[in-house]
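Good day; I would like, with your permission, to put a structural problem before you. A protein sequence and the structure tokens that stand for its backbone fold form the material at issue. The record follows directly beneath this note:
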Amino acid sequence: MNESSFEKEFIAIIDFGSQYTQLIARRIRENAVFSRIFPCQTPIDEILKKKPKGIILSGGPRSVYEENAPQCNPSLFQKGIPILGICYGMQLMAQSLGGRVIPSGKREYGKAELWVDAQDRLLEGLTDRSIVWMSHGDQVTQLGNGFKILAHTSNTSIAAIGDFGKNIFGLQFHPEVVHTQEGARIIQNFLFEICQCSKSWTMISFIRAAVQDLRNRIGEEKVICGLSGGVDSAVVAKLIHEAVGEKLTCIFVNNGLLRLGEAEKVVKTFRDHFHIHLVYADHTQTFLEALAGLSDPEIKRKRIGEKFIRVFEEEVRKLGRIKFLAQGTLYPDVIESISPLGGPSATIKSHHNVGGLPKDLSFELVEPLRDLFKDEVRNLGKELGMSEEILMRQPFPGPGLAIRVIGEVTEPRLEVLRKADAIVVEEIKKAHLYRKIWQSFAVLLPVKTVGVMGDERTYDHVIALRAVHSLDGMTADWAKLPYELLETLSNRIINEVKGVNRVVYDISSKPPSTIEWE
């Protein structure tokens, strides 16, 4: 989206490669303050010309004392603008201003107890002790003139710092991560007490800017939008339809990797409720043939992406000349797909909206949701008048059940997973937990186990259950489902889904695991 589209007041985030960088942006914007992310190579003067209200230095995977480690111009700290360094950002700040950073004797990854040593503007209102999220292998052992230690943990004697004269602060922990109990309060203190921001960025302002940008870019051309059945594609279609009306055609490709009854629901929703022009194309066999013999998840994702575009182009040719392709790419999609060659952040896995597209793509991409997180997309949908039934659906991956069938994807294996997954959704809804859980689904494992059914030996499939709590998909905790519910799920799946004799429950959080298994 064009720079002029957003509110003038913003916080600049300088990215040193943290997987949490865009999560920092999310935390700022949930306080109705806009944020922009700049690569660490961006000249400081270029950032300052845009007149940010404050600057945040992100974390990163490197060590500040390493050769060729990402740096920033030390003159930044003399400009008088409020600055908050997080993890690597704090270490860089300390080193640039006469401090010392060394490898930690004991690395800290995960939860730690923070003791507040000084109540100041940054830590104002915090309790004396609280849980924070650490992720570092280095530590600041000495501070330059002007700095004061604000907090510590049992393993980190300098966990928060401040130089009130320069209006710069640092945190060794991550306030943006939900595991940090009082992180939201710290960010609010930085935004409103230190940077003196006002609450000027809202979803209404986003819609106004997005609609105008879409109209300016698309003009009299035509745009198509691929539907997946999920929230993201539904909202992007509604937003574009709001902007350009009949210039939008939605294409729903049934790739054979959908949940039980998914195709019928999508067609009904868009034709009957939204009154958007919809083309439905069943290419189940095409995708299954393309996936035959494949088990590597990255290859599966990219093969699906490539095949989707080929099928898409085939359907588009029937419509005549189309210039634009709309996608529901979100912030988490992008951050998990960043290449080390394109910036310091490490690749986790390619996303279906980012890494799987072929180089000879013949459309210009339109990604109006690229700056938003999932809960923001739902808020956007509400402002656009969409129903909660659509908006509160749990996230579903673009590659569909192909990345929940671990190993080779075949129709019989898909059928097993569909039936098991339908039971999961049904029982989660019965327990009134569907809207309280970020995602809940079944995974078909590539192993078989021995069992006994009807006094006979069985050797059948294993289903893994996954349920997590999250705000935006960037971090997640496994859901502590009631034992009675887990028992019901296990009994129903084993008794009702032919070919399954064992059910297990995934109790991994993100990080270190991802939400999806592939």
Summary: The chain is about 30% helix and 25% strand.
